[in-house]
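Researcher: Before we compare anything, I want clean individual predictions. No alignment, no superposition, just each chain on its own. First chain goes here; please echo the sequence and then give the structure tokens.
Model: Echoing the first chain and its structure:
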Amino acid sequence: MTAPRVFGLTGNIPDPSVITQAAKMLREGGLVAFPTETVYGLGADATNPKALERLNQVKGRPPEKPYSLHLYSMDQVRAFVRSVPPLAERLMQRFWPGPLTIVMPGKDGKSVGFRLPDHPIAHAFLHACDVPVAAPSANRSGSPPPTDAKEVMAALGDTFDCLLDGGPTNLGRESTVVEIVDGRLEIRREGAIATEAILALIK
């Protein structure tokens, strides 16, 4: 395989031409690594089965394990669910955009994880993609998640297509994952947001 294209991006206003190129690669079935405020993600078009199959191969992840969707707006999230549970709405208003993944029932009744990253490059890229993006951490499953471009390259080599290099991530820790089950909150993974901060909101 050819080496991934690497674009260096700095500042809060990412180069639109670069973002457009990266989004086009993703929509055409490519895998694009990009920074979030937590760690680097490896994005694929969540509506493209072949892209998801390739993502599974690169990650070394079983196909039955679902990916969370990375989106750029709450309106996008609302389009994927019949209704947002009240508890999820409170979490969305308090912690989004930010390092919180919220799992709730999708329109088909199956649980779906949603995240809105708080990072200018991630936001611009997801907006340009205009499709739901499956974006686990940009590493092989079981390995430490990468927090800068060098770690992404060391973890994945030439197995993906494009890297948006935004420098080191701010938090360096994965998102906290919560699930809303029958109106109750369950913590699936404690990450960048402490459990205490979430529980304090819902008391």
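Researcher: Okay. Second chain, same rules.
Model: Second chain and its structure:
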Amino acid sequence: MSVQAGESWSYQKYKFHGLSLSGIRTAIAMPELSLCFDVAQGYPYLINLKHFFISHGHLDHAAGIPYIISQRAMNSLPPGNFYMPGSLVEPMDQIMKLWEKIEKHEYKYNFVTVKGDDEIPLNAQTYIKVFPTTHRIESYGYTIFEIHKKLKKQYLGLPQQEIVELRRKGHEVNEVHHIPVVSFTGDTQIEFLDSRPWVRQSKLLFMEATYLDERKTIEQARQWGHTHIDEVVPRLKDIESEKIVFIHASSRYSDKEAERLLKARIPAEYHERIVLYPGR
């Protein structure tokens, strides 16, 4: 089991920066793709990003939206793109209108409604796909897909000029694979694992595990739209991810105690695949 200290974590070519602690803060950025999953109260390292994927409207995940908009304006940056559940768009717009009234300043921003299975391009090789999650309010998760092209078997070994000529004549010489590489949930019950098959197949799965011991029961976790680690353990065999990154641990646990509890509750055969993302 690998538990990381500090705010940053990397796996292969993927780099993450942020924190996640239940009820306090969740904002995890991928600077190389200029995106962030949730924004907590807004942090300086988020301001220069272009894309903000909001899972749901609770304050520990979304309170920073006005601050980021304000800071981008102050730094003469173009409006950021905030993707969010449809039920959040109008209230957030009203909040921004109130801030405009308070500050006597007009802001520009892009609030984009998302729904399950939406695809949002990031660049020519990468896009986001939306999946529904199960919380007390409307909520979604997000998966980064990479587009991988490889030459079809029948064309392997051909000279480059012949391949170019085939393309010129309109032949499709490549196989195209859409690979789920990073999935992220905000707050959700365990049922999100069954919402879309690609979530369990993602190379990296960031998922909430709020409660880690008997101080809160599975039933209590579900009442608040959360996931208990004792619900996750039976499902580990179904998750194909190379790494399962637990976020949103309850603030009742220190990072050290959370690590101890995960080691105790998760079978040893899965320890190498588990990461506890820091909250403090």
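Researcher: What stands out in the second chain?
Model: The CA atoms of residues 155 and 173 lie 7 Å apart. Additionally, The domain at 2-33+116-276 is CATH 3.60.15.10 (Metallo-beta-lactamase; Chain A).
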